[in-house]
Design a protein that fits this description.
Two copies of one chain form a homodimer.
Chain A lengths: L5 H10 L7 H13 L2 H17 E3 L6 E3 L6 H4 L4 E8 L2 H10 L4 E5 L17 H10 L4 E4 L5 H13 L6 E4 L15 H9 L5
Helix pairs in contact in A: 1-2
């Protein structure tokens, strides 16, 4: 005999699908929703009902856009320089870069990083679309803005090789010390990168 | 201008209501649901739609039961001893005690613990219902199975005072060393309790 009501078990199971949510967290979330009035639960139901219908990928830059947009406003905006593209792996990376307020070019979301262990090959990424954008938009510089991980480095290297014969400057985000980090406590790899990539003052 | 599609923002906001879910986790959950096909999202919608309708409180023991049950099966089951009640604060505490397999009595869920700081007074708890159960069920022993927290101790003390004139044995869960804990690493309060509550061999 099950100790919990079926409806509560279903909610716990459904919440347990979310990434990083274990059975105890799922129990906590489900019980929280149950304890509160149904307003919070209905808000989740409403949001989830429109989630897939309300969001699509921009056909040019592959950032997430409203379904009723044709192309990302970050691309169509005349203030953005189409000759510079920041290449990122995931849509939320765009938000991170936008928050710096220092980038006025456009974006290209690959939709992941090359990772043989997870079964992600170059064919799964929007690389051919990037190559055709280089021609059609007259791109002068590509900034490879990947994570500083093995997968990020692999993808950067792969792109570099693929784009060798294109007349385009390829740069990547600087590696070095994070702002505010004590030299003493910096990890030795970042410190090494900061040394080899030292900047003239 | 918002950087994210409205539908995705709504989902992030709704998920951010859950306890302990910050904006980054909410983003991660929402993006996970969006990346996967709508099956997972629909499963959540279905589970949430029936959550409130499918669950109710048992009118006697206040554990969570299926809406189509009258009384908790843990109470109606003839194998359970109605003269012993374990008093717990939350419905999930029942699950924890059931998992030990060592308790054959019935339960009474108070629905919280006395906590002036959170505005929870004795009137918010199912205490009068407990008192009437003591008479109607001919209860001989109450086991106060609260958390080992300030609120748990407060609630235990309050119940003890309220039930002074009832002819019922009041016991509480033993405090002491957790199984598997090294004496050296035990916190000094638990070790103190283990000393004062030492058991004859």
């Amino acid at each position: 005999m099950s100790l919990l009501p079926k409806a509560l078990e279903n909610a716990i199971e459904a919440l347990g699908q979310l990434p990083g949510v274990g059975p105890r967290s799922a129990e906590r979330y489900a019980y929280y929703l149950l304890k509160n009035d149904s307003y919070k639960t209905n808000k989740l139901i409403d949001a989830f009902s429109t989630l897939h219908k309300g969001v699509k990928l921009c056909p040019v830059t592959f950032v997430l856009i409203d379904s009723n947009c044709d192309v990302s406003p970050l691309y169509t905006n005349p203030g953005r320089d189409k000759s510079v593209i920041a290449v990122v792996s995931d849509p939320f990376d765009v938000i991170a870069i936008e928050k710096t307020g220092l980038f006025k070019g456009t974006y290209h979301v690959l939709g992941g990083l090359i990772s043989p262990i997870d079964g992600v090959t170059p064919d799964d990424l929007k690389i051919s679309e990037l190559v055709s954008r280089i021609k059609s938009d007259g791109v002068k510089e590509l900034i490879l803005a990947m994570n500083a991980s093995v997968e990020g480095e692999t993808t950067s290297l792969y792109l570099q090789q693929q784009l060798e014969d294109q007349k385009v400057i390829i740069s990547r985000l600087a590696r070095g010390l994070s702002v505010g980090v004590d030299l003493e406590y910096a990890d030795h790899i970042s410190l090494g990168r900061a040394l080899t990539g030292r900047q003239k003052m």
